[in-house]
Amino acid sequence: MSQADIAVIGLAVMGENLVLNMESKGFTVAVYNRTTEKVTKFVEGRGAGKNLVGAYSLEELVGSLKRPRKLMIMVKAGKAVDAVIGQLTPLLEKGDIIIDGGNSEFPDSERRTKELAEKGLLYVGSGVSGGEEGALKGPSIMPGGSPEAWPSIQPIFQAISAKADSGEPCCDWVGNGGAGHFVKMVHNGIEYGDMQLICEGYQLMTSLLGLDHDEMHGVFSKWNEGDLDSYLIEISRDIMGVKDEDGSPLVTKILDTAGQKGTGKWTGITALDLGIPLTLIGEAVFARCLSAIKEERVEASKVISGPTPKFDGDKEEFIKDIGDALYGAKLVSYAQGFSLMRAASEENDWELNYGNVALMWRGGCIIRSGFLGKIREAFNKNAELSNLLLDDYFREKIMAAQAGWRRVCSKALEMGIPVPALSSALCYFDGYRTDRLPANLLQAQRDYFGAHMYERVDQPRGEFFHTNWTGRGADTASSAYNV
């Protein structure tokens, strides 16, 4: 008997929590896992007494669903998703909907949308952010794919999503094809950047200012009440307060090697493909890579020396400067991320609504913050805004932050404390506000050794020239193009 509103395939913690979230909002959910013992354990355990339908085969799962059937796949991205889709396809009918809620690469969602459309099926590639707690209590959800699927899944997705302060759901249709997973990828890239910035602030407070973790608990608490208010600042505050069994801060016992699942790397690769300067997120990814070579760093520390960090200024003023530096760099990271989304939207005809993206990230997700409300206002005021740094509000904020930001980067470099994200963001800010960069010399170099030609400031754009720089070369030029 068809009774379930939606099915979830994959009962790891994210899958289970999404099921419980859906059921708590009044939906009947069918569940299936390849290891069928998990179905029994879940239905009789966390799901006991709830409106769930346990299925022990895909045929049974499909048969339990109302039409159009809606099946959400929560398995590891890549081949596993394609394998499940391949098993499902023969069991479904025209108009049925397959939803991939994992961290898939957006080109895979582009491909799957087209392949399933040829079979009369609808595909949704949906980013889901918020971790285990978000999945259970309300995540940020970023669906894209076949637009015809949205009316059927909208009531479920918007019911289970987080809500902004205004009560609006942190979920809306993103765009065609891979748009949903693309926006989730950029979200994760920005998450890499936010985390790295906070870690650099942490190292400055420990290595330069000599603050203990109780003092830093107070600093993070204060920051979380101002412009830096965010989930990541909040949890950093909480981490500072957790003690190990011996009474020492637990965070100091954690090995300093960072892991990564790949979404930050994908963001950087996509930025290179589209020619967008995504410098901060790139540095955040490389910082994780550098942290991973722990043994090599330990050996290097024994033979390579630098300055001994010391600070003889006003600590309270410098803490304020660190806060300003975090804010300025954070703004650059989001400016770069939204510029990447604009370029991808134009490349793929997605017609992304950037104000809606900011709303989707306003609650439930890992980068949720009050800051995103201001981003939404900026794009609602000017949907064609080319860069967040040009918005009146953010321009004033970053101008006010830059003096402290510069003092922080200067002192860090002087004292040999690595701040790759803070400093690369400042370099982007200075490059973006500079009307003449030294790329004229770069173009001369390219023309010198490769006859790649150059444009002139006294001639119209699009006209290219070549110079025989040595007198020994020829007048024949190479073709002018940019990858």
If you had to describe this structure to a student in words, what would you say it looks like?
- With 483 residues, the chain is α/β, with parallel strands linked by helices.
- The chain has 19 helices and eight strands.
- The chain has helices at residues 13-24, 37-44, 58-63, 79-88, 106-117, 131-137, 150-160, 179-208, 213-223, 231-240, 263-274, 279-292, 294-303, 315-348, 354-360, 371-381, 392-415, 420-432, 439-450; strands spanning 6-9, 29-32, 52-54, 70-73, 97-100, 122-129, 140-145, 175-176.
- Strands 3-2-1-4-5-6-7-8 form an eight-stranded mixed sheet, sandwiched between helices.
- Helix 2 (37-44) links the parallel strand 2 (29-32) and strand 3.
- The longest helix has 34 residues, at 315-348.
- It is globular and about 75 Å long.
- The chain starts with 5 loop residues before the first strand and ends in a 33-residue tail after the last helix.
- The mean pLDDT is 95.
Q: What is this structure, in a nutshell?
A:
The chain is of the alpha/beta class and 483 residues long. It has 19 helices and eight strands. Helix content is 53%, strand content 7%.
Can you lay out the helices and strands and say which pair or pack?
Layout: E1 6-9, H1 13-24, E2 29-32, H2 37-44, E3 52-54, H3 58-63, E4 70-73, H4 79-88, E5 97-100, H5 106-117, E6 122-129, H6 131-137, E7 140-145, H7 150-160, E8 175-176, H8 179-208, H9 213-223, H10 231-240, H11 263-274, H12 279-292, H13 294-303, H14 315-348, H15 354-360, H16 371-381, H17 392-415, H18 420-432, H19 439-450
Parallel strand pairs: 1-2, 1-4, 2-3, 4-5, 5-6, 7-8
Antiparallel strand pairs: 6-7
Helix pairs in contact: 1-6, 8-11, 8-12, 8-14, 9-10, 11-12, 12-18, 14-17, 14-18, 15-16
